[in-house]
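Section 5: illustrative case.
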């Protein structure tokens, strides 16, 4: 997941691999991904808002991706974004 923009223009990238999570966290991630309609949405309508890119790679090699702005998340994406961005799972990189 990539979150960019905001007042400072920082880019936060968070990579989460379900295989590296404890069973409860992996289940939570799977439920969130399955409940998310990964389709592109509108750009942010908020001044200095965030832009998001969510990429999900399946065990079968499939890749699903959605891009949307703050306030324009497709159904289920807000919960997935919050879990990934606000959680302590995965590898984080911060840059510009």
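Designed sequence:
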């Amino acid at each position: 997941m990539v979150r960019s923009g905001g007042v400072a223009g920082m880019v936060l990238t968070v990579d989460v691999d379900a295989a590296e999570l404890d069973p409860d966290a992996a289940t939570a991630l799977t439920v969130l991904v399955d409940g998310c309609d990964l389709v592109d949405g509108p750009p942010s309508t908020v001044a200095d808002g965030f832009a998001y890119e969510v990429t999900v790679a399946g065990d079968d090699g499939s890749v699903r991706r959605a891009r949307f702005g703050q306030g324009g998340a497709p159904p289920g994406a807000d919960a997935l974004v919050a879990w990934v961005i606000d959680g302590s799972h995965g590898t984080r990189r911060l840059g510009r």
